[in-house]
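User: Here's a structure from my thesis project, written as structure tokens. My advisor, Dr. K., wants to see whether a designed sequence matches the one we expressed. Can you design one independently, without my sequence as a hint?
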């Protein structure tokens, strides 16, 4: 039954992680969702249910640890900083998530990773490892490079970005394009005008931060573009 959810425990570095898998009836492929700074929440689970309804398994990846589920944005920010302190270890953590997903039954034709905010950085970092998956997508993600030796990027990359996002000014957008080109990547960057951070999150306006604001237009347009990206990767009649 499409939209049926199950919890999946997995391990990394002695930590127990608790992710959520939402299954499609006949999955075209499996999409890994890397959450915002707040960690696994109803926001990502809602995205996962929509993706399952569109024919994709959706694996909402816990990156922080089972004990931090539901702890809120402040704790999430602390955990994000912990993981960002070593981008090499973060990359290994992301690769371990992919191996967990690869071990699941009935994953369809391939794997895509998408992420939001910190999760967008994670999606890009996964591509930067050189892993052979179909694609990655970043929604209002952070673009900072890892500082590690570059590798060829095999995954196709699409990034959705608010042009006025103060966390990722235009110079960083240009730098990401140059980085992806140098890595031999098939890439796209979609920038939305008059749009800041967190534009896919209907609750963003409640954060009291002018840097985060929901944009119905950018939200709709980015998801529509993701649909096209997925159709290119996994044709419905393929």
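Assistant: Designed independently from the structure alone:
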């Amino acid at each position: 039954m499409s939209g049926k959810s199950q919890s999946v425990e997995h391990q990394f570095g002695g930590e127990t992680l608790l992710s959520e898998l939402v299954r499609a009836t006949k999955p075209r492929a499996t999409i890994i969702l890397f959450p915002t700074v707040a960690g696994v929440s109803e926001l990502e689970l809602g995205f996962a249910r929509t993706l399952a309804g569109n024919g994709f398994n959706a694996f909402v990846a816990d990156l922080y640890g089972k004990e931090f589920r539901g702890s809120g944005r402040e704790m999430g920010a602390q955990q994000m900083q912990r993981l960002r302190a070593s981008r090499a270890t973060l990359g290994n953590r992301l690769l371990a998530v992919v191996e967990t997903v690869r071990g699941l039954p009935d994953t369809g034709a391939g794997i895509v990773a998408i992420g939001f905010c910190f999760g967008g950085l994670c999606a890009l970092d996964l591509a930067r490892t050189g892993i052979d998956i179909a694609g990655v997508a970043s929604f209002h993600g952070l673009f900072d490079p890892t500082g590690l030796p570059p590798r060829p990027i095999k995954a196709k990359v699409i990034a959705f970005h608010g042009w006025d996002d103060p966390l990722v000014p235009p110079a960083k957008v240009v730098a990401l394009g140059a980085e992806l080109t140098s890595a031999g990547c098939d890439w796209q960057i979609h920038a939305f005008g008059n749009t800041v951070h967190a534009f896919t999150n209907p609750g963003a306006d409640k954060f009291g931060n002018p840097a985060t604001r929901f944009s119905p237009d950018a939200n709709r347009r980015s998801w529509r573009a993701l649909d096209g990206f997925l159709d290119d990767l996994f044709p419905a009649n393929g």
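When you compare it with your expressed construct, this may help: The beta strands are 4-12, 15-23, 29-34, 56-60, 111-116, 135-139, 156-162, 187-192.
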